[in-house]
Amino acid sequence: TNNRALLDMPIKDFIISSEKVAHVQSGNSAEHALLVLTKTGYSSIPVLDVKYRLKGLLSTKMITESILGLERIEYDKLADIRVDEVMNQEVVYLKVSDTFQRALDLVINHAFLCVVDDEGTFVGIMTRRIILKQLKKYIYQ
Amino acid sequence: TNNRALLDMPIKDFIISSEKVAHVQSGNSAEHALLVLTKTGYSSIPVLDVKYRLKGLLSTKMITESILGLERIEYDKLADIRVDEVMNQEVVYLKVSDTFQRALDLVINHAFLCVVDDEGTFVGIMTRRIILKQLKKYIYQ
Ligand SMILES: Nc1ncnc2c1ncn2[C@@H]1O[C@@H]2COP(=O)(O)O[C@H]3[C@@H](O)[C@H](n4cnc5c(N)ncnc54)O[C@@H]3COP(=O)(O)O[C@H]2[C@H]1O
Ligand SMILES: Nc1ncnc2c1ncn2[C@@H]1O[C@@H]2COP(=O)(O)O[C@H]3[C@@H](O)[C@H](n4cnc5c(N)ncnc54)O[C@@H]3COP(=O)(O)O[C@H]2[C@H]1O
User: How many angstroms separate the CA atoms of A63 and A7, rounded?
Assistant: First the structure.
């Protein structure tokens, strides 16, 4: 494959599909979300609504930052905070029709990217790991 | 640059040097470490000893997992746990003399890599972001 062929590749073969993506629901408590993050082991995951639309991104850092008191981290407050209050609502995302080039440009600054279809429904994620594997394959041939 | 030239590049120009790397000291409490992780915003950082030797890697996930009780996350226990008890001591690292190829092979499975000199002193890190920037530059020319 030459450079242009790789850059023009559609991303669909590289997407981790939604059923394999750990996420939380809009409306969940930050306490529940922190358990999901800890048990799945991911540092940042999507927040979806009941129709599987993308609402935001939530990370352990955002949760801990929100309860960083003057003297200690105030974990007792977590049950009363909803994910919607602490998540990042400005999500940079990809469309299913985007190319590898678009994904490469964006993962410079994002560890993973959410992918949505034309209706705005969340369909999966593109990770740096997958992009790096493709680049390595390309560069080693 | 052709493929071989990029892969053979020494990593030294791409290292984020140690003074810019957030870290904790061996012997610190997990409570102190969680504050450092939260304030710096990184999900995983190196653990160094007083001589700046690399002892392990510590992530927020490792800390939270260690206090995941049956009913709730037991944050009151953090002051009594040392980072050495929860960190990952099997650190995959690079030597200053390694090439870009070695770094590329390893970042497939690691978001960042610690770099040590011949004495085993920590000198900095190589991140996926830096590697992706180089690959993008190479692929766009
Ligand atoms: N259970 C596991 N098994 C094997 N390796 C693991 C792992 N958890 C993490 N890693 C490794 O650590 C990297 C960073 O993970 P992190 O959770 O910070 O950052 C992740 C996480 O925020 C998100 N992510 C990846 N897969 C996910 C999934 N199935 N569900 C939800 N979020 C996911 O995308 C980011 C980048 O993922 P990427 O694969 O490039 O990079 C991952 C992967 O190389
Ligand atoms: N303060 C900040 N400003 C701008 N962007 C930020 C940022 N904090 C995080 N990011 C972005 O998020 C990515 C994942 O960060 P994370 O903390 O999970 O994972 C980081 C962290 O574990 C470690 N790391 C990076 N820089 C570090 C530093 N100066 N000190 C300690 N650890 C660092 O290397 C991993 C990969 O870093 P990478 O740069 O490839 O990828 C970073 C970067 O693209």
Answer: 36
